[in-house]
Amino acid sequence: MKVFKLDNIVLLIFGFLIILSFFNPFYNSSIAFEDNASKEITESILILEEIETLTIPLAENVPFLKSWAHTYENDFDKLLSYLNFADLLMLLQLGILKLSEWWLFKVILVLCFIGMFISQSKPICKKVLIIALMITPGLGIYTQFMSGICHQMEMDLGSELKSQLQATKDSINSKKVINKEALDSLETIQKSKHKGKLSIFNKVEDDVIKVSDKLSEEVSTLGKDLLVILRFTGNHGLELAVALLTNVLIIFGLLPVLFWYLISLALKRLFNYSKSLDEIDKKLGEIKSISSSKTSKS
Asked: Which residues cross the membrane (predicted)?
């Protein structure tokens, strides 16, 4: 009688989850959460590439900036690699979530549920049904749950880094506009020294070109200001990128594994298959006996 009631309860739970998978009220909000995080990372990558595009011609025209370019280029390369890896993880998670809404999963759910009423196919159908329910609506429920946790704990998934990079880009553009006259004057003087032609070799030799003291001071100040901005962005951006990558790995890597592992243990207990839990209890007993024996010896 007890087994009969338990089977009925399990069937009711499965039936409810299958109905939920067809409506899946968590899907849209889960997609919005992951899509927003993915966009933040992708936009950060684009802004970083725009910053590099802006600084390359400036580095060629400003001797001070050119000579110190290697101090921030390495940080920018690391930052870009971290962002690309985080973006890959986010796109993978987003793809799996979208795949969970595939109609084939719904068909599998219904067929497996029907198969549970047939004694010959009940064991295999139960296993397949559990796996399918973990995908839909399981993924949507989990993502919605993690979205709430991220909001409550204020875990950053790219917005802070994006703001930092955008501020850097705006600062570089601002410096470029303010010092446009000095940069144009420098290029004009360079061309006049080389008969109207300005080759890459001529630009490398900027430091030997004699310009007015005022112009030289303005260009040097511009180079120092830009270097400070780029160094700060490189160092602080790396810190934000590492924090971002850590959050992505925890939320979309470690916690899903832990979440489904705990659910699997609960299901095994529910179906009176507690081998894994018994093994854990056994290991804990062994550790306890070892620690107690050491205590008695001492």
From this structure: 9-27, 102-119, 128-145, 240-263
Task: Cite the beta strand spans of the chain per DSSP E.
Answer: none
CB 211, CB 68: distance < 8 Å: no
Domain housing 169:
40-100+155-273
- Max Cα-Cα span within the chain: 101
54 occurs within a structural domain: yes
Kindly report, residue by residue over 146-182, the tens digit of the pLDDT. Answer: 888 888 887 888 888 888 888 888 887 777 666 665 5
| Tokens read off for 53 | 């595009």
- Both tokens assigned to 87: 């973006």
Domain assignment present for 18:
no
Q: Which two tokens stand for residue 281?
A: 């209890």
Q: What is the pTM of this model?
A: 0.64
Total domains in the chain come to 1
Do the beta carbons of residue 37 and residue 97 sit within 8 Å? no
Q: Which of 267, 238, 275, 289 is nearest to 86 (CA)?
A: 238
